Amino acid sequence: MGNLSLFFLLLLVSGLFLSHAASAGSIPDDLRLPSTSAFPRASAKKLIRALNLIPKDASPESTVGFSSDASQNRIFERRFRFPGLSDGISVDDLGHRAGYYSLPHTHDARMFYLFFKSRNSNKDPIVIWLTGGPGCSSELAVFYENGPFSIADNMSLVWNQFGWDQASNLIYVDQPTGTGFSYSSDKRDLRHNEKGVSDDLYDFLQAFFAEHSEYAENDFYITGESYAGHYIPAFASRVHQGNKDKEGIHINLKGFAIGNGLTDPAIQYKAYTDYALDMGIIKESDYKRINKIYPTCELAIKLCGTSGTVSCLASYLVCNTIFSSIMRIAGNANYYDIRKQCEGSLCYDFSNMEKFLNLKSVRETLGVGDIEFVSCSPTVYEAMLTDWMRNLEVGIPALLEDGIQLLVYAGEYDLICNWLGNSRWVHAMEWSGQSGFVSSSEIPFLVDGVEAGLLKTHGSLSFLKVHDAGHMVPMDQPKAALEMLKRWTQGKLAEDSTSSVNLDAEM
């Protein structure tokens, strides 16, 4: 089939999808087509659960600090202490805050966030965490990955000795609008691309540092995982550009870290079959058959580029047949950790978090009124489909050249954003240090003298393959993840491992 014929086929397929999505109100007005056909939402339903854009009973009056005449450029927050938290620590000593920021460049959107003061020092770096999805709440990370505590079955909280608040001041944000406790009363506030997402986050940061000037000069790092492989480079570029243009408060951006992320789809989708074959998920015959899809996927991604719309939806549909073909063979395997079986709508049981965050006492503590919390939103997921297949690697080299540190890390047992695809795009990225990075030696990443991963680093760029971990590295290897954060933010990521390697060589 020629490229032109293929292009029209892609347009037809995406047109069918658009006509369904437009009728559901999740596609921008300029992309809507007449509703002539329905398209199944199986992909979104498989990955995430339902949540309306406008949460039940949400209103400015029901949330912390808001009133009908509230300023559109202010943060409203409160200090809080979760019910069920052991130890008699005071609210002031904890320094935990929950808040809403009324986003200025929206019709009626409020962004929810949590802030946890470092248990070590106020001078520790500020680290912001973005969970992916798109449309999954960062509270997933708070309670199951690198937050200060986890939830016991009796709904009490247990301190996490490997929480990242041991080494940083932590911000978790529910974004884009419609995710977690963030909400709007106007569907036009849904975001469809990284410009909208990163502008909202930048506006929030400016307001946060204006409110908390005592942290404004701290080193600042952007972190996250999964679809945040899109969010993070765009957000880092937005912050860096804002600093260059002297737009407001200077944000002391030092680095950004992507965990098991989706950043360069063309390279990462090609790696699916290689990883699946290497790990014994598929056979050689399956490998050859599924690989026949990739040339069409590759062309579709090229047509999408960095700013396509209809073509990006088409590439999403075409390319994800590669992943779905592998999963038909894998059966009920957990695509976030191939060692396990998929349990529940997110392949993990996060029900304790939803129960906890929907307790009346917890909602009152956080100031979210009667908003019902759900982990992930298909509404947000579908709204971002035009963004999914865009290449976010393109903005990273400029950041590296200006000395902004990048750490890409990946658990070795994740399929959906596997380490192989991440390693390949990192190695293929063109920047002044590319040859030095490619030729640099791989060294063991040691934690307590034991190899916890394999590290490659040169200049501003580091890549870490984490052993015995899946998609959610801080959940599977909390001690190694905390050690990774500490060393990276201190500029010592390879230091302990290098000294050990040199000692072995001398012996």
Q: What does it look like?
A:
With 507 residues, the chain is an alpha/beta fold. The chain has one domain (41-281, 333-438, 459-489): Rossmann fold (3-Layer(aba) Sandwich). The protein is 39% helix and 16% strand. It has 20 helices and 14 strands. The protein has helices at 3-23, 42-47, 91-94, 139-144, 194-211, 228-244, 265-278, 284-291, 294-304, 310-330, 351-357, 360-366, 378-383, 385-388, 396-401, 419-428, 434-439, 473-476, 478-489, 495-506, and strands spanning 75-79, 96-102, 109-116, 126-130, 149-151, 157-159, 169-174, 183-184, 220-226, 253-261, 405-411, 443-447, 450-458, 461-466. The longest helix has 21 residues, at 3-23. The chain is globular and about 60 Å long. It starts with a helix and ends with a helix. Belongs to the peptidase S10 family. GO terms for molecular function: serine-type carboxypeptidase activity. InterPro entries: AB_hydrolase_fold, Peptidase_S10, Ser_caboxypep_his_AS, Ser_caboxypep_ser_AS.
